[in-house]
């Protein structure tokens, strides 16, 4: 039995009689804290008959070895070395070949021993040599027993299954498929997915784990590993198939000359799917043979990947980007590895750096940013895309090697700052820190006068320093996840350049600062707070005429929206979620003429979406609304009046209704007035869904004209569904 972790090493040296070249077998080495006693046993062949076959040196380092049993140990050791259990461990620990060599060596020694035993009676030296060799076999058996013990223990308690291979092979993808497989999910009451970054910080890692799980007693030992799963590259045919899928729109037969060049390009990718996908995406829109030849014959292939860890294929993809996208891509390095960021966050970051410029009076910077993201997506720089609000909000990640590429080309303009790093340049423009206190934030503000993007997510202070108002260049401020912050200083309203402000998850925030109306550049705002009225008695929401996105989430005390909401004349997206005390919407909300997306979700007391006032003026509303989602509204009994009247009937494209059990029927006039409605999705509304069943439902004729219909996820009309989710950003 091993106490804690046993420290043991077995090494065998055999000498070819002619070359005397040693062959060293290292089976395993594990550091043991409390064991410092080692002993070395060296046995050499002394009998001339034995030295005709070989010289032999057996070196053993071992702690707390057991007593030996019998000379027949030689047969037992060989038997154990050949067992399936030992072979499994040898394969897992990467010593399979060495174990086979050891087996061959011991077999040879055993054959010699049969002859040596007969002659030991007449040779004192031979008898002494055999005794020492016998002891060595005893110790070898103990070590083999340790291997067996580890193998058996792992079968009882599997903790870690390592997956190894070069970057880009799909290790994370494979792990993700296993993690989400229903056969795996059913075996575990608790699952956690945590990314360990290049800069290993055990404290941050533990905090990530605690975020994933709040209960249970997870134990882990780094010796609890089963067989190593080494991922090999794709075979050439599979790589070529992937390449063709990424690079050709109309099929390979149409461009046989390009396919031949593509086959040669694939050969250079060495079976790495990431490289194949990147180059295939790069060539997707290129049909000139010269473009393909230039990729195949590029000097970039001759660069040593080991110099900076960036694959040649990724470099080629980067170099092919237009200049403005090179800058935007490099700036993605400000997000941490494996970070799931949204299009809203990324576009706001680009805008903070001034990388997006409107090309015309009617072109919104957010729309230009969307085009940039789509271009980078088409070139496989982003992956794991998850749609949250169809056509509006989605999240994605960067492969870790793609992130390395962005960091490589971002330096020295963009630096990743360590909390404890010294000599940080004063002209830092982007900084991200977590779990910081007020004194640290003060120090940052004092030092980084030119900063444009400050991410203090998951920090731990009650008040933002007054000095925040001195950051005249600040465009992006993330305070989300701070469970202690209670107030924002009025000086924050002096951040006239600020475009992105997120207070999501600031559950103790008592109110928004007076004078928030003066932050005239705000374009994206996310709010969590304790206030009953969204903007209080603020006079001047009319000044926030740049605001595009407003998200109100987890405001537990919120009862009313501000009556000045109609002043937000540029607002395009409004999300109201998890506000259980909200009893009414402002009737003026309907006069948000630029609003394109309205999401109202999990507001338990909300009975009506029409607001307080009634009258003819209410029907002239929402002149641009395209997507409407309302869900988890148990008190909602009817669709809003404005939905079927006025401009909305000519603009609405998608309607999503989820978990509104009191909504039992559609209006008598049906949804025929929504002439541009392309998608209707109804979930968890039992009575309403029953009435909307194909042909037989009482309300079927009211919706039969809609091209794409889903009832509880079941496709009623021909449509590839994208289930609506919203993202708290």
TrEMBL record:
<dbReference type="InterPro" id="IPR032675">
    <property type="entry name" value="LRR_dom_sf"/>
</dbReference>
<keyword id="KW-0067">ATP-binding</keyword>
<dbReference type="InterPro" id="IPR042197">
    <property type="entry name" value="Apaf_helical"/>
</dbReference>
<dbReference type="InterPro" id="IPR055414">
    <property type="entry name" value="LRR_R13L4/SHOC2-like"/>
</dbReference>
<feature type="transmembrane region" description="Helical">
    <location>
        <begin position="36"/>
        <end position="58"/>
    </location>
</feature>
<keyword id="KW-1133">Transmembrane helix</keyword>
<dbReference type="GO" id="GO:0005524">
    <property type="term" value="F:ATP binding"/>
</dbReference>
<dbReference type="GO" id="GO:0098542">
    <property type="term" value="P:defense response to other organism"/>
</dbReference>
<dbReference type="InterPro" id="IPR058922">
    <property type="entry name" value="WHD_DRP"/>
</dbReference>
<feature type="domain" description="Disease resistance R13L4/SHOC-2-like LRR">
    <location>
        <begin position="444"/>
        <end position="681"/>
    </location>
</feature>
<feature type="domain" description="Disease resistance protein winged helix">
    <location>
        <begin position="334"/>
        <end position="406"/>
    </location>
</feature>
<keyword id="KW-0547">Nucleotide-binding</keyword>
<keyword id="KW-0812">Transmembrane</keyword>
<dbReference type="Pfam" id="PF18052">
    <property type="entry name" value="Rx_N"/>
</dbReference>
<keyword id="KW-0611">Plant defense</keyword>
<keyword id="KW-0472">Membrane</keyword>
<feature type="domain" description="Disease resistance N-terminal">
    <location>
        <begin position="76"/>
        <end position="156"/>
    </location>
</feature>
<dbReference type="Pfam" id="PF23598">
    <property type="entry name" value="LRR_14"/>
</dbReference>
<dbReference type="InterPro" id="IPR001611">
    <property type="entry name" value="Leu-rich_rpt"/>
</dbReference>
<dbReference type="InterPro" id="IPR038005">
    <property type="entry name" value="RX-like_CC"/>
</dbReference>
<dbReference type="InterPro" id="IPR027417">
    <property type="entry name" value="P-loop_NTPase"/>
</dbReference>
<dbReference type="GO" id="GO:0043531">
    <property type="term" value="F:ADP binding"/>
</dbReference>
<protein>
    <recommendedName>
        <fullName>Disease resistance protein RGA3</fullName>
    </recommendedName>
</protein>
<dbReference type="InterPro" id="IPR041118">
    <property type="entry name" value="Rx_N"/>
</dbReference>
<dbReference type="Pfam" id="PF23559">
    <property type="entry name" value="WHD_DRP"/>
</dbReference>
<keyword id="KW-0677">Repeat</keyword>
<dbReference type="InterPro" id="IPR036388">
    <property type="entry name" value="WH-like_DNA-bd_sf"/>
</dbReference>
């Amino acid at each position: 039995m091993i106490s804690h972790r046993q420290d043991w090493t077995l090494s065998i040296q055999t000498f070819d009689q002619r070359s005397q070249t040693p062959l060293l077998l290292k089976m395993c080495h594990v550091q043991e804290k409390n064991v410092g006693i080692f002993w070395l046993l060296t046995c050499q062949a002394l009998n001339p008959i034995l030295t005709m076959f070989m010289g032999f040196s057996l070196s053993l380092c071992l702690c707390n070895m057991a007593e030996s049993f019998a000379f027949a140990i030689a047969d037992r050791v060989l038997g154990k070395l050949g067992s399936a259990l030992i072979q499994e461990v040898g394969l897992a620990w990467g010593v399979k070949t060495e174990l086979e060599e050891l087996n061959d060596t011991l077999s040879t020694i055993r054959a010699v021993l049969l002859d040596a035993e007969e002659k030991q009676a007449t040779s004192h030296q031979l008898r002494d040599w055999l005794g020492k060799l016998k002891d060595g076999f005893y110790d070898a058996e103990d070590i083999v027993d340790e291997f067996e013990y580890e193998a058996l223990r792992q079968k009882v308690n599997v903790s870690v299954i390592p997956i190894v291979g070069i970057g880009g092979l799909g290790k994370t993808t494979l792990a993700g498929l296993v993690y989400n497989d229903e056969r795996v999910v059913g075996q575990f009451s608790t699952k956690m997915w945590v990314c360990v970054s290049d800069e290993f910080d055990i404290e941050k890692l533990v905090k990530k784990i605690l975020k994933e799980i709040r209960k249970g007693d997870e134990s882990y030992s780094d010796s609890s590993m089963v067989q190593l799963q080494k991922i090999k590259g794709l075979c050439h045919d599979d790589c070529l198939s992937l390449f063709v899928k990424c690079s050709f729109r109309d099929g390979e037969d149409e461009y046989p000359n390009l396919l031949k060049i593509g086959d040669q390009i694939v050969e250079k990718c060495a079976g790495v799917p990431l490289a194949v996908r990147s180059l295939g995406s790069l060539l997707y829109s290129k049909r000139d043979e010269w473009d393909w030849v230039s990729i195949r014959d590029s000097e970039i292939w001759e660069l040593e990947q080991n110099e900076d860890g960036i694959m040649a294929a990724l470099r080629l993809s980067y170099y092919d980007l237009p200049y403005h996208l090179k800058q935007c891509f490099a700036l993605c390095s400000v997000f941490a590895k494996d970070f799931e960021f949204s299009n809203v966050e990324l576009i706001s970051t680009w805008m903070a750096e001034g990388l997006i410029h409107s090309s015309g009076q009617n072109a919104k910077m957010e729309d230009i940013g969307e085009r940039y993201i789509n271009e980078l997506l088409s070139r496989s720089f982003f992956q794991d895309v998850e749609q949250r609000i169809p056509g509006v909000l989605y999240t994605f990640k960067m492969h870790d090697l793609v992130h390395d590429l962005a960091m490589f080309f971002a330096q020295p303009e963009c630096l990743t700052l360590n909390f404890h790093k010294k000599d940080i340049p004063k002209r830092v423009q982007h900084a991200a820190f977590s779990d910081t206190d007020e004194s640290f934030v003060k120090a940052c503000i004092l030092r980084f006068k030119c900063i444009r993007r400050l991410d203090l997510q998951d920090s731990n202070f009650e008040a933002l320093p007054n000095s925040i108002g001195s950051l005249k260049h600040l465009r992006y401020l993330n305070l989300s996840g701070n469970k202690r912050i209670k107030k924002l200083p009025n000086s924050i309203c002096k951040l006239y350049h600020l475009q992105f402000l997120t207070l999501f998850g600031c559950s103790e925030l008592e109110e928004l600062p007076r004078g928030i109306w003066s932050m005239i550049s705000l374009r994206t705002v996310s709010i969590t707070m304790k206030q009953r009225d969204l903007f209080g008695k603020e006079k001047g929401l009319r000044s926030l005429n740049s605001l595009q996105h407003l998200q109100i989430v987890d405001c537990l005390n919120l009862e009313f929206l501000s009556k000045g909401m109609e002043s937000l004349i540029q607002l395009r997206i409004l999300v109201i979620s998890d506000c259980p005390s909200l009893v009414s919407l402002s009737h003026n909300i309907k006069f948000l003429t630029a609003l394109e997306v309205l999401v109202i979700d999990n507001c338990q007391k909300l009975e009506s979406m029409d607001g307080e006032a009634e009258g003819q003026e209410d029907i002239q509303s929402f002149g641009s609304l395209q997507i409407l989602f309302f869900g988890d509204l148990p008190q909602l009994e009817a669709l809003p009046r404005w939905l079927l009247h006025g401009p909305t009937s000519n603009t609405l494209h998608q309607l999503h209704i989820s978990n509104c059990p009191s909504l039992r029927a559609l209006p008598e006039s049906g949804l025929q007035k929504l002439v541009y409605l392309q998608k209707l999705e109804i979930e968890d509304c039992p009575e309403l869904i029953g009435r909307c069943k194909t042909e037989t439902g009482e309300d079927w004729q009211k919706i039969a004209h809609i091209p794409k219909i889903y009832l509880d996820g079941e496709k009623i009309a021909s449509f590839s569904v994208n289930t609506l989710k919203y993202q708290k950003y």
